[in-house]
């Protein structure tokens, strides 16, 4: 036996075997460090889910109101939107809330890190269409830059007449928003408490 021949039990692994073992060990380390997620997908924010304002609980409603308000304020300043598209008192008109909330979710989805490069253009296309709808909603609702009244409701035959509505001046929009959110969250919390008591009150 030559001096270059390894003794039995001391065979040296071939280079290809060393590479395979090292690669396997590195993969195992990566999976251990990232919880089985070597590409870091778990660190990406979750995809947005639809917000159903009819069924939101009190805690979720407060968070959604604040997030939507911050985004709408950014949107109207970023794009120079007039009050005919986004009026100050949009939060008091459900038709505007639903439209702006849907647009907000679309924006979150289009600019998600998981989205491809076509996402921003898709948002701008939908944003353009949404502005036309917002103008229609604002015209129907009757809210303006400096004054506001509840959206007039059409009474169907057999229904009680809708209460009369009057215009109110808009003096401090942010203060009104805070009061509105407090009232909304309080109402939802009361409905939750009633449900736990076995009553049939709904949001």
Concise summary:
By secondary structure, the protein is an all-alpha fold.
Structure description:
It is a single chain. With 203 residues, this protein is mostly helical. Helix content is 51%, strand content 2%. The chain has a domain at 58-151 and 169-191. The chain contains 5 helices and 2 strands. The protein has a two-stranded antiparallel ribbon with strand order 1-2. It is globular. Mean pLDDT is 84; it is low at 15-34.
List the helices and strands and how they pair.
Blueprint: H1 15-33, H2 58-78, H3 94-110, H4 119-141, E1 147-148, E2 168-169, H5 173-196
Antiparallel strand pairs: 1-2
Give the key terms.
203 residues; mainly alpha; two-stranded antiparallel ribbon; 5 helices
Q: What's the tally of helices?
A: 5
Largest sheet, order of strands side by side?
Answer: 1-2
Strand content: under 5%
What do the pLDDT scores average to?
Answer: 84
Low-confidence stretches: 15-34
> How far apart lie the N and C ends?
89 Å
Radius of gyration: 29 Å
Helix content: 40-55%
Q: What characteristic shape results from the CA principal axes?
A: globular
Quick one: biggest sheet? 2 strands, antiparallel
| Structural class by secondary-structure content | mainly alpha
Series of secondary-structure elements, N-terminal to C-terminal:
HHHHEEH
**Number of E strands:** 2
């Amino acid at each position: 036996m030559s001096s270059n021949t390894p003794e039995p039990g001391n065979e040296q692994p071939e280079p290809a075997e060393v590479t395979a073992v090292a690669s396997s060990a590195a993969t195992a380390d990566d999976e251990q460090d990232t919880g089985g997620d070597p590409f870091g997908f778990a660190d990406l924010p979750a995809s947005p889910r639809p917000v159903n304002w009819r069924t939101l609980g009190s805690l979720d409603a407060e968070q959604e109101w604040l997030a939507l308000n911050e985004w709408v304020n950014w949107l109207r300043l970023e794009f120079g939107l007039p009050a005919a598209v986004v009026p100050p008192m949009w939060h008091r008109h459900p038709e505007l809330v639903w439209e702006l909330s849907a647009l907000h979710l679309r924006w979150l989805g289009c600019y998600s890190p998981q989205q491809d490069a076509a996402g921003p253009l898709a948002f701008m296309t939908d944003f353009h269409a949404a502005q036309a709808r917002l103008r229609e909603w604002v015209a129907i609702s009757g809210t303006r830059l400096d004054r506001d009244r509840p959206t007039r409701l059409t009474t169907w035959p057999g229904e009680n007449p809708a209460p009369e509505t009057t215009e109110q001046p808009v003096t401090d929009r942010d203060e009104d928003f805070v009061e509105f959110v407090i009232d909304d969250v309080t109402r939802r919390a009361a409905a939750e408490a009633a449900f736990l008591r076995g009553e049939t009150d709904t949001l």
